[in-house]
Design a protein that fits this description.
This protein is mainly alpha-helical and about 120 residues long. It is about 75% helix and about 0% strand. The chain is built from six helices and no strands. The longest helix is centred in the last third of the chain and has 21 residues. The chain is globular and about 35 Å long. About 30% of the residues are buried.
Length: about 120
């Protein structure tokens, strides 16, 4: 399985889990909040379908990798993406690709929603 397909299957698993646990709308709300907090003018619809969310979000991350890494770093800091997690995912590549980074961010947003719902 190619690296891209592996990331996509992981994303779909996280988004299905969020939907099954009724946390999908919370994930979108948290993502929108964090985007606003770092002054990124982009908002996902609360009823956005998982595939559309994934496509749009990975494209957004790719844009920030190419055009505005300062905002991307601010977003990662705001979301509290572990630097260790980025290093582990990055050890085979010279740079994280947009899809892998988008997956790490969505996974962290789901975790935050899960913790709020369960504790």
């Amino acid at each position: 399985m190619s690296k891209e397909l592996g990331v996509i299957s992981k994303v779909k698993r996280v988004l299905r889990k969020a939907e099954a646990e009724a946390l999908y709308t919370a994930l979108i709300a948290q993502l929108n909040k964090d985007l606003r907090m770092v002054d990124i003018d982009y908002e996902f619809a609360a009823d956005e379908q998982p595939d559309a969310l994934w496509k749009s979000f990975s494209e957004l991350i790719e844009h920030f990798i190419d055009k505005d890494q300062t905002k991307l770093v601010a977003l990662l800091y705001r979301i509290d993406v572990s630097e260790e997690k980025l290093k582990v995912r990055n050890k085979d590549d010279s740079a994280l690709d947009a899809q892998t980074l988008a997956f790490v961010i969505l996974q962290r947003e789901w975790q935050k929603g899960w913790y709020r719902a369960n504790f």
